Amino acid sequence: MEPSDETLCERVAAGDEAAFEQLVERYQQRAFRLAWSVLRDPDGARDVSQEAFIRLWEAAGSFAGRARFSTWFHRLVVNLSVDHRRKHRWWRQVFSREESVDGDGERLADQPAPPVDPVDTLDRERALADLWAAAEHLSPQQRAALVLQVQADLAMKDIAAVLGCSEPTARVHLHRALSALRRVLRKERA
Amino acid sequence: MTEPHVETALAPYLRGDLPADERRHVERHLADCESCHAAAEDFRLIRERLATTAPPVAEPHWGRYRAELRARLAGSARRRRAWWLRPVPVAMAATAMAAIVLTFTVAQRGGLNGDVTSDDAVLATRLDMIDKQPIVERLDLLEDLDVIRDLDRLASPRES
Q1: What is the average pLDDT value for chain B, to the nearest integer?
Q2: A102 pLDDT band (50/70/90 cuts)?
Q3: If you measure CA to CA, which chain B residue comes closest to A128?
Q4: Tens digit of pLDDT for each residue in A30-56?
Q5: Ordered structural domains, chain A, with CATH
Q6: B111 and B136 housed in the same domain
Q7: Same domain flag for B89 and B103
Q8: Does B10 reach chain A within 8 Å, measured CB to CB?
């Protein structure tokens, strides 16, 4: 039987490198995707997610076990991602395209509909790509809430804990994310 | 319909996160509200699609990712271990430690205590106490009232 995340974390706190490797393998993809959901930058996501693992190695002992390990670790990733965004904001403001602020996804609604190929309208790959493309225009909180629910399969209270907000606020983030993506779905059907 | 919609409860409802009473409330609402029912169906579809696909980001080669992580960890550990081994901090720390030890030693041996001892010697000479050493040696007897009363007699053998 595979050891639980919490057990592995205890071993990491005792300096067990094999346990650390196991946790890295379990969480590398989720950590990367979560960091990407906040940063939208693969290099930054790699950097931040690796930094989260370094913090895990150095501070596994501070995991008190009050929450699940996944919540604790995802929160670490989100915090580091937010710090990373803050540090690189000036750079992004100068060189990167604008992104929507936390809101109702108006900018998404303003976008032209994806080009429609009459032969290939219902192509699944294309539909998925459109959904993810739309997700790129969500606010970081909305995107993180979405990734945490649909990819990391976290419960609402855990998403709230990871994002550092109340559960009702987390629900609103997720609802707005899904509503924005729903518009893409409706355009696809139209 | 006057009942408020349950939009923000739909995502936790679809994942099964709602407590029983709220879940029943949402289910009752969905049975009556076409708008929320349609939204729930769309949300379900979106969740299914996104759960089964990766985000459109080039994910790293995970073996290389872990190798980079190991290298970063080693570098981080080296930095942490080494900061106090660098020449300047070592020299500064050694100097500070030597200064502390020196100050402490001087204070213990030649500092205040030494001065007091020297002063005591001068004072003792001036008061002619050295000449009356037997009495000085027995000064602790002054705590005894009987001895104090017979103090004159204590000194008399030497005088005689």
Answers
A1: 75
A2: very low
A3: B49
A4: 999 999 988 888 999 999 999 999 999
A5: 5-91 (1.10.1740.10), 100-189 (1.10.10.10)
A6: no
A7: yes
A8: yes
Contact between B15 and A149 using a beta-carbon 8 Å cutoff: yes
CB contact under 8 A, A156 and B17: yes
Chain A closest CA to B118's CA: distance in Å?
Answer: 58
Q: pLDDT tens, B82-136?
A: 555 555 666 677 788 888 888 877 776 655 454 545 555 555 555 555 555 665 5
| B57: in domain | no
Alpha helices in chain A (DSSP H): 5-13, 17-39, 42-59, 69-87, 89-95, 106-110, 124-135, 140-150, 156-163, 167-189
- Kindly state whether residue B116 falls inside one of the protein's structural domains: yes
For residue B62, the chain A residue with the least C-alpha distance is A28
> Whole domain around residue B46: which residue ranges?
7-51
Contact state of A150 with B47 under an 8 Å Cβ cutoff: yes
User: B111: helix, coil or strand?
Assistant: coil
Domain tally for chain B?
3
Determine the Cα–Cα distance for residues A4 and A161; give it in Å rounded to an integer: 20
Closest Cα in chain B to A185 = B42
Q: Are residues B13 and B46 in the same domain?
A: yes
Q: Is residue B160 part of a domain?
A: yes
- Distance between CA atoms of residues A74 and A30, nearest Å: 9
Whether residues B143 and B120 share a domain: the answer is no
* A181 and B CB contact within 8 Å: yes
C-alpha dist (Å) from residue A155 to B4, B9, B154: 24, 13, 95
Whether A182 sits inside 8 A of B73 (CB atoms) is: no
DSSP at B128: T
Instruction: Please report residues of A whose CB lies closer than 8 A to that of B40.
Output: none
Each residue's pLDDT tens digit, A154-190:
999 999 999 999 999 999 999 999 999 999 888 877 7
Question: What ipTM was reported for this prediction?
Answer: 0.73
B144 and B118 assigned to the same domain: no
**How many Cα atoms within 13 Å fall on the side-chain side of residue B118?**
7
In a domain, B67, yes or no: no
CA-nearest residue to A30 within chain B is B54
